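Good morning C.,

I know you're traveling, so I'll keep this short. The sequence:
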Amino acid sequence: MKKLSAAFAGIVVCGLMATPVYAQVMGFNGKWSINHEKSQGPLAATEILTYVVTADEEHYIVDEVEKDGRKFNTEYRAKFDGKEYANKNLVTGAVNYVKIRKVFDRVEQLTNIRHVKGTDGKDESQITGYYIRVLSLDGKSITSTLTNAEGQVTAVRVFDKVEDGAKPKG
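The tokens, ready to paste straight into the viewer:
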């Protein structure tokens, strides 16, 4: 009986090891529209987030129209590996950087970074702010809290999941 239990335990352990572990927040997948009623701070007239998340990376695209009509579009592809990834402004071509990390199963922290020349003439990373993104328990909304480099909250934005075929609200 002990041999059978040990063999069964070995099979269970091997099965667990073979199960893929997703570092990314898979629930972020899809299209998300700003909910103006639930959000606070400076907001665009419309803002649509698109996440394409795989086991290896998060591809994030933001399509935004400011209240004065200016467009703001950026995108990045990043992993939860502590490295900096380019975040390109698709309107101006400017590039900043992001670093993302998983905090909990439904929570990620994004660090916004710009590169500046140091006194030695080499590029240095300078943190400009953070986003804490929390996926709701039901998977129907994301709350994104923005803070500046000093940790002061500058905005809280709530995004609602856009169901397939539905027109985004924002």
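Safe travels,
E.
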